[in-house]
Amino acid sequence: xxxxxxxxxxxxxxxxxxxxxxxxxxxxxxxxxxxxxxxxxxxxxxxxxxxxxxxxxxxxxxxxxxxxxxxxxxxxxxxxxxxxxxxxxxxxxxxxxxxxxxxxxxxxxxxxxxxxxxxxxxxxxxxxxxxxxxxxxxxxxxxxxxxxxxxxxxxxxxxxxxxxxxxxxxxxxxxxxxxxxxxxxxxxxxxxxxxxxxxxxxxxxxxxxxxxxxxxxxxxxxxxxxxxxxxxxxxxxxxxxxxxxxxxxxxxxxxxxxxxxxxxxxxxxxxxxxxxxxxxxxxxxxxxxxxxxxxxxxxxxxxxxxxxxxxxxxxxxxxxxxxxxxxxxxxxxxxxxxxxxxxxxxxxxxxxxxxxxxxxxxxxxxxxxxxxxxxxxxxxxxxx
Length: 384
Prior knowledge:
Blueprint lengths: L1 H8 L10 E4 L6 E5 L10 E4 L2 H9 L6 H18 L3 H9 L6 H19 L4 H37 L5 E5 L14 H10 L3 E7 L6 H13 L3 E4 L4 H6 L5 E4 L3 E3 L4 E4 L2 H10 L4 E4 L5 E2 L16 H4 E2 L14 E2 L12 E4 L6 E4 L2 E3 L4 H15 L5
Parallel strand pairs: 4-5, 4-7, 5-6, 7-10, 8-11, 10-15
Antiparallel strand pairs: 1-2, 2-3, 8-9, 9-14, 12-13, 15-16
């Protein structure tokens, strides 16, 4: 199955990467995810036949990115329902696979809600399973549509903030088709600028320690034909000082009710640099990433990852062939490491939050609530 998926990747259009898909082979339904740990060297599909396999894929970053995690959570519940596993237990396992990304729990809740509603309405297990899969597919479609709207809103905002076009945009981590049912979040905005002939340069942070920028964003930018340049994370300051950055575009794994943004570690320093150098700092994320149950940034649980990702150099994280102690040591044996997966940027450092329903600027609690409220009424989706 993995080889078959790898071969199929050669036929997709440049910039179009099927990061996740539902398949129904004779042996039974499966969820196939593009194993992002192996990029850019290999395009290999990871076939998940049950929820524990999908949970492992999420925890080891084979599948990652806030919107895609929401879709994976919903499809995972559907997989349990269709295959006759314990759906409630599966939902619980999936919802807690990664604590910071709010979209994962959101997707699980939506699919589980569809399953329980079908049962309460008198449907049997097969009808409930079908309803759950339909809900996962609906979320998939909604994410693709949201991606397109975010790209349009983001491009319009860039044109307003940086008159004259020729944008030089700095991004961090990976926010493209690999994290979405569509073209992504922040990288979708860069893609829209590229197609409009207005992207002069995409600056790509390597994103230590797992190199999502180098391995994934550069991979997507190359496929799309963007003019891009990779840099070490700690070289960003020199770019700002040289006046080479017109805007910063990042995604988000969770946005608190006050507008605080949790994103891949290294985002907060970029916000500080951007403020000092008077450069717009833009966060692009769907409204499902906004968590009104989290009042402020200080309440966001930040995932702490294994220290060996810092003390050893490996090209892939654990679960893809590299276990602790198998990498090249870059620190003395026994060195303690601080390795948060995310950091939190306060709202006063965020120029604007771009969602599929519009833009919040300045970023305030009231403005964010009003925008997300409009989105929920307009789309008919449940509250975040």
